[in-house]
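ok here's Carboxypeptidase S, seq below lol
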Amino acid sequence: MVVKSLNHLPIPTSANISPRSVSTRRYVAGVVFGIFFSLQLGRYAFDLGKNLDITVEDVTSWTHNVDAAQFCPQVTALYPQSSLNAETWTEFGELLETEKFKTLAIERLSGLIQIPSESYDNMPPPGQDPRWETMGQVHDYLAVAFPLIHSTFSLAKVNTYGLLYEWTGSDASLKPYLLAAHQDVVPVNPDTLDTWIHPPYSGFYDAETGLIWGRGASDDKASLAGIMLTLETLIGKGWTPKRTVVLAFGFDEESSGIHGAKTLGKALEEIYGRDGLAFIVDEGGGFKDVYGTIFATPGVAEKGHADIKVEVTSPGGHSSIPPAHTTIGYLASIISELEQNPFPVELARGTVPHDTLLCYAAHGHDISPRLKHSIFKSTHCDAALRRVEDLYVSKDHWYSSLVGTTQAVDMIYGGVKANALPESAYAIVNHRINTVSSVNETAAHDTQTVSGIARSFNLTLKAFGQDIIPASAYSSSGPKGHIELSQAFNHELEPAPRTPTSGTGSEPWDFLSGTIKATYAAHRNLRGIDGSNIIVSPGMSTGNTDTKYYWNLTRHIFRYNHKNGAYGGEIATGVHTVNENIPLDHYLEMIRFFSTLILNADEVKSFE
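and the structure came out like this:
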């Protein structure tokens, strides 16, 4: 208003200007300018505080008083301490660097890759499909490649092809632990063979690039070979464990594990009992550079899973006299409606994705101050939590997929002939369920979304065994067709229990964190430091592992095999697609991780 009033002041002329009036006007102009500047500065400060939800006092306090590490506490590196284990660990590390051992490691992994142990969806049990027989080739190879293990460990075969090894420790009072991997791989599409740089089952090692090529090189035969070679080497050195070591290798992880890990889980529980294991380590997270800091993110939770079948039926007939919509047309509308109404993506406190962001904020060197402050404040402020969604989650497709329940229409079927109206059509919708949601909530969301389409087209609806829209809902003309929602394969899965990472009962997490730090430092010749050059944060993947059948065995499940994602080359790892590979150095570091883990586990007493 002050500025506007200046426009109405009389315009001065040389005739009516006096020295005094000039001085007065200069004084008035200065006051007005000062008020205007103060107002603008105040408005800027108000907007800044509104956008960041902070005050000047908050900023001052924050700058001087906040201990960022409290949001993501760290342990120091954990090295084997006893003279025997420390000496064994040092010798193992030196052996890793020799050309002889590197050649052996390449040969063992390459030989395993050369076996096309593919698993497919909806395969019948072993013995009913010859495609399972490649798993027998894996068994034969392991027996020849790792003879010391097969003469030292006990071995049970579960449901024909599941492998359950045990190396009995000398101290029966110590809980055993389990190392897991899977023998099977994703099938190679024959149409893609000419796009592979090296044949998918060649196991080719390129000395120039340092890459080992082939299906399973990264997922998950490097883990399997790494575990076996580590133990074979320790046996060869005369080392024996105090704590019992258990190995479980499934054979259909890539097709949900219903014949492999599911039966292994039951066998393990029969042998060791409920909560009978100290911890489990399976495939999963690794480490990478985020905001200028190396973060390792062991998976301590998993999303749920559900495959929903959406089927539409309606009268058939000749296509020359079609209705306004066929079953395929109805199905297309349903799919469109589902995709236009995705599940909300809402970050929640106490979840792994939120805890991971807290670690990024606490230790990321290059994270923006605004995002950092918002993440910290989101621990108690709902507005800040929503702001983190806007600043980070919504802008990162992978992270938003991690946070929310996802949906993907992956399979569709309908029609048998071009001139015949299809009497039925269906689609399979794959859901990965938010860790704070459930299978029932997911089913309810799909039911509610589809019900609107059903009513608009005069279709009846049955969802998961319940009549939602019966035929009586329509006039005497009756419904035009029927929609049914059901679980497609009857292996839906609730979100996994979370592994403790703080407070009482988190000792296995601290043990794993220290082991990761020691491995990372040793592989870079940094032994003796406290491990601060890698941060260990709770993590989670978007998929599931065989551990979904091992929940009863322990509260402490870690999906982590120390894969290096921080220093990747120009060639992608090709997991589940063409040109799968793993760098030799990354594979060797995984072996170092397993050796450090095994030796450390033999000394730690806090698991019991």
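fwiw Residues 1-29, 31-53 have pLDDT under 50 and may be disordered. kinda neat tbh
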